[in-house]
Amino acid sequence: MTSPKLSSISIASQQQNVMKFVLSICFIAATILSILPCEYRDGNRIPSTIIFRQLPSIIFHAFALLLVLAFTGSFIALMIEDDTQIVRQICWYISVTSMAAVGSILAYSISSSSLNWVSYVMRE
């Protein structure tokens, strides 16, 4: 038995829900990043949290850039007219891909900082 195919309207509404979710996650993350205390390392502003402290500054800058790219892609995909579906799809793909990269950078940063913490505890 075959499953019924989703209509293009339901796919579009699912994509809109994903874009709203990405937009709100990016907004919340940007708000949190703006209120965190920062330190300057090699002339670059880095949040002085446990997550990004031990890593090179390029990791945080890639995180912030991809966060902005995900926000921009989802905002454009939500605001674009229905006439230009291909542009909406491209913005959707850019936003989802950027959000996946943000998640992977965050997972890498958390795992790296936790491994540094474990090695510090083992030395003591």
TrEMBL record:
The chain crosses the membrane at residues 21-38, 58-78, 90-110. Keywords: Membrane, Transmembrane, Transmembrane helix. This is PGG domain-containing protein. It comes from Manihot esculenta (Cassava).
